[in-house]
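Tutorial, part two.
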Amino acid sequence: MSHRSPGAAGFTLVELVVAIVLAAIVAGFMVLFLDGPVQAYFAQTRRADLADSATRIAAAVAGDVRTALPNSLRLTAAGSRKALELLATEGVARYYGQGDKDGALGEELTVGIGHPVTTFGTLELFSSAALPSAPYLSVGNLGNPVQPTYDAYIRGNGVMTTTAVTLGSNPSASPPPPFVGGENLVTLGAPMTFQAAGAPAIQPSVHNAYLVSGPVSYVCDSRAGTFTRYSGYAVTSGQSLRPGGASALIAHDVSQCTFSIVAAPPGYAYGELAILTVTLSSAGEALQVFLEAPTEYSQ
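Running the prediction step on this input gives:
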């Protein structure tokens, strides 16, 4: 049997084992007490991320739907993908209709077959008058399925131009009555006949003309877990779930979504209402976004 001499240094094997056991017990208690706050921190981070995604979805969709061309909202779905599409506008102004200007300076817009126009005037500047030109101009869009004949997505039906339009003020410094200085003059890239003759409820009293920048799609893919905005692609009669153009990821962690469109009852201040329900989930945390986005413009 060996004994440690009074001047010897170090630990015996028993002391080392005891120290390790005590350290393990202390570490276990530390993990036990710290695990709750750490998990709570990560849970709070996940919730904050989901809330941020919900905010981005609501802001993006509501902003585009608000200024969409009247009757241009449409839906499609296949498999895990669902899409909401609209025609985005860059401005709106009331135009001078037949007889409003006595035919002076070509500033009247006569709607109907046999009346091609290249210029017309508006009562005020377009709300996006800083733009010197815009891709399209639309008058009298009734949409589909309300009236497929007058749907802006279909080419050649006299609802939307296929060439750029140019904006400019009236060149006359002292226009004859009833002209007023500074009114907007619209010049089409090619002669256009707005063929609305016989269309039901075509807007003779509203007389709104819309500058259209192009289509915008929001595509929800629950399998990929993404909510994406697409823009900068061509206008087509059929709606696509993969429209192309420029894409921007709005949100991830999307587990489910539903889209619907409701037409406004008579007398309401909006034309259509886009209703979205999007469920976001991550590691046991879930958040549901319910959004009702009304269009600002109506025919």
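The first strand starts at residue 74 and ends at 78. In part three we will examine how such features are distributed along the chain.
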